[in-house]
Amino acid sequence: MSTIRMNLINAALNRAFTLIDYNIHKGFHKHYEFMQQTILADNSLTEEEKTEAIRLNNEDYDRDKIHFNSGTRRICENCNQKCLNYIIL
């Protein structure tokens, strides 16, 4: 297994965030989708590092879905109420 270079991953995430054009990508859903595409196109990262960057991006996305109370809703198996659909790691 190769060594994950966290500094490079963080730099790629910051670069993807900086490249967001707020006139084109309206709403945080589009922001995270654009960041994922940018990370996948980054040639400086290995596949393992891309996977880690996508995982970190998805964690932030799930946090923002809860914070902004936005996203796909589903019926919870425990309480039978509509809840935001997100993944708990």
Distance between the termini: 22 Å
Specify the number of helices.
3
Helical proportion? 40-55%
Order of helices and strands: HHHEE
* Structural classification: mainly alpha
What's the story with the biggest beta sheet? 2 strands, antiparallel
Walk me through the structure.
This protein has one domain. It has helices at residues 6-18, 28-41, 47-67; strands at 73-75, 82-84. The protein has a two-stranded antiparallel sheet. The chain contains 3 helices and 2 strands; from the N terminus they run αααββ. α1 (6-18) crosses α2 (28-41) and α2 (28-41) runs antiparallel to α3 (47-67). The chain is globular. With 89 residues, it is mainly alpha-helical.
Labels describing this entry:
54% helix; 2 strands; mainly alpha; 89 residues; two-stranded antiparallel sheet; single chain
What is the secondary structure topology, with strand pairs?
Layout (H helix, E strand, L loop, with lengths): L5 H13 L9 H14 L5 H21 L5 E3 L6 E3 L5
Antiparallel strand pairs: 1-2
Helix pairs in contact: 1-2, 1-3, 2-3
Structure in a nutshell:
The protein has three helices and two strands. It is mainly alpha-helical. A two-stranded antiparallel ribbon has the order 1-2.
